[in-house]
What we know:
Largest sheet: 4 strands, antiparallel
CATH topology: Alpha-Beta Plaits
Number of domains: 1
Low-confidence stretches: none
Structural class: alpha+beta
Distance between the termini: 18 Å
Order of helices and strands: EHHEEHE
Amino acid sequence: MLTVVVRQKVQDLAVWQKSFDAEKTMRETSGATLWSAAHEVAEANTVVIISDWDSLEAARVFMDNARATFAQSGVLSTEVRVFDREIKL
Length: 89
C-alpha cells in the first residue's frame, strides 16, 4: 500500500472544496482506499490531502486525470509526496 500526500495552495477554499467533493467517485473508482483533506490553521488556502492507494500506477493515473480540474478549482501550486510503507511506532 502507498500513501500519497498532496499539498496545494488554492485561491478560494470553498471553490476548491466543491471540486474535491465532486471527485469522490473518481477517487473510489481509481483505486483510492482511504483519503482525508484538511487546511492549514494559519493559512486556510493551503490544503493537504492524504490518500492510500493499492498501487503507484493507480495513484499516478488518478493524479494525471485530476490535474485537468486543478486549474478550474483555483489550485495555484501542487506538491506531491509518495510513501511506500507504514512505520509502526
